[in-house]
Design goal:
The protein is mostly helical and about 170 residues long. It has 2 domains: about 70 residues; about 80 residues, no CATH class. It is built from 8 helices and no strands.
């Protein structure tokens, strides 16, 4: 028999399954759907991803990657400095020595959050100009401003999901 699935393959499969579910509007926690999909791809019944061979795991990874947009499955990582900036730019009390302009990836994160909230771009722009805006300039130009807006939108989304009686804005998947 072939070698068992490796821990990196298992982690990659789980990550890709989550991405696949968000694209296909499926519940990523639906174990039966995941195992049924895997069985269809490899041609045999599967009771757990842990029982897959390395070859079967590679088949599943390839199959999932073909169904996802290339920007989602890319394994390129940001540089160490950029990754740190993604996590720290815009924090209170932090003085930035370098101004980083907002990049396309960060704008995609903002757009995804707006979609999750059901907000239009006009509503978001009005929010940025309001007294409650996390951005003093009223516009997103730098990574720090984008991060502040992202954190605010995530808090709004989290609050809307936990408030009793509030309509659920949670995306399927």
């Amino acid at each position: 028999m072939s070698s068992k699935i490796s821990p990196p393959q298992l982690k990659r499969l789980q990550t890709l399954w989550g991405l696949f579910c968000s694209q296909a509007q499926l519940d990523p926690k639906d174990r039966e759907a995941r195992l049924h999909w895997a069985a269809d791809v490899i041609g045999r019944q599967v009771d757990s991803f842990g029982e897959l061979s390395a070859v079967e795991a590679a088949m599943l990874i390839d199959a999932m990657q073909r169904h996802l947009p290339s920007e989602l499955v890319s394994r390129t990582r940001p540089s160490r400095r950029l990754a740190q900036a993604y996590g720290t730019a815009g924090r209170r009390g932090r003085i930035e020595k370098e101004v980083r302009l907002v990049d396309a990836e960060t704008l995609r994160v903002l757009d995804a959050l707006l979609g999750s909230l059901g907000w239009t771009r006009e509503r978001f722009d009005a929010f940025l100009r309001s007294p409650k805006s996390p951005v003093h300039s009223g516009a997103i130009r730098t990574l720090a401003e984008a991060n502040r807006a992202i954190w605010a939108l995530k808090n709004i989304l989290r609050h809307s999901q936990t408030t009793p009686g509030a309509p659920s804005l949670r995306r399927a998947g």
